[in-house]
Amino acid sequence: MTRAILIFTALIIFLLSVFKLGHYAYFSRNISNELVLAIIAVVFLVIGIYLNKKSLHKKPIPPKHINTQRIIQLGLSKRECEVLREISLGLSNKEIAEKLFVSESTIKTHVSNILVKLDAKRRTQAIKKAREFQIIPL
Amino acid sequence: MTRAILIFTALIIFLLSVFKLGHYAYFSRNISNELVLAIIAVVFLVIGIYLNKKSLHKKPIPPKHINTQRIIQLGLSKRECEVLREISLGLSNKEIAEKLFVSESTIKTHVSNILVKLDAKRRTQAIKKAREFQIIPL
DNA sequence: ATGGGACTCATACTAAAGTACTAAATTGTT
DNA sequence: AACAATTTAGTACTTTAGTATGAGTCCCAT
After folding, report:
1. Separation between Cα atoms, residue B49 and residue B46, nearest integer Å
2. CA distance to A77, B35, B58, B74, per residue, from A132 (Å)
3. Residue B49 near residue A45, CB atoms below 8 Å
4. Closest Cβ opposite residue B48 in set A47, A56, A126
5. Which of A35, A113, B43, B107 would be B93's cystine partner, CB 3.0–4.6 Å?
6. What is the CA radius of gyration of chain B?
């Protein structure tokens, strides 16, 4: 958010500078007028594409946006989200433990907490709810 | 691709038209010069956003209907597909048994067969593969 | 009518999953 | 530094999931 404001401020300053240049340096000449127009067009075309890319998919690979708002509402921690994602990939507790370099006991604790927070009885139900809540990719 | 070329051609024509207008109508006035610049900037910003949105929105693959072709390939029976769907809804074997009015043993048999046919070790992995194969709704 | 496929059910077993605690180390914030 | 939240890990236990095997019933097609 703050970054977006900064970028916009920079853009406005840049725009004003170009206007100034158009005024002082190329006041009487008409050829340069067109050049300024063209530059403005191209620059803003690029800016438009850039802005949209930033706003639409922040991370390149998962096109679908995860609902961070709901993750906070549910009180899911960072690690729990990680475990939840691995569950959705069909891994067992043991496999998740090996993948994340922790013990199986730890994963069991995480899973239990996830089930409580998602109000699910089983990990399969947790997957279903996580999909509905859009808190896991794909 | 062809559509993109057409759009670009239209844009170039539009740009040239604006140039012409800038030449004939607002030749001597400097105030309107800035106005034209501003319009160009806004228009191309919008165009940039629009173009990017078009290219990005094509990405999400429409899951649409279930792939009956693959179900046949995998050799999944009608009942097995039914059980698979219930698994994806997060139900336990017991719950599925009650829902389909059969014993839990029957469901266990079905699940085992499903796992073999989908080459999955767990029901969670079966869900993941079933999604990829598009043989379950949503 | 015979055979094959699908569906059903059972038993006995092993392997995961999940619960209910307790507790230490880590991390971030005030 | 003090505090809360997170992450880690353990034990002991219950429940669910999954495997292996065998067997009975039904329906459909050759």
Report:
1. 5
2. 18, 48, 22, 28
3. no
4. A47
5. B107
6. 29
Contact B37, A40 (CB under 8 A): yes
Q: Is the pLDDT of residue A99 over 60?
A: yes
Q: Is the CB of A3 under 7 A from strand C?
A: no
- Provide CB contacts within 8 A for A58, sequence distance 6+: A65
Could you tell me which CATH number the domain at A68-132 has? 1.10.10.10
pLDDT, averaged across chain B: 77
Percent of chain A at pLDDT exceeding 70: 54
Predicted confidence (pLDDT) per residue in B93-105, tens digit: 999 999 999 999 9
Amino acid letter for position B131: R
Residue type, A128: K
Closest of B81, B57, B77 to residue B134, by C-alpha: B81
Closest residue, by C-alpha, to the C1' of C6:
B77
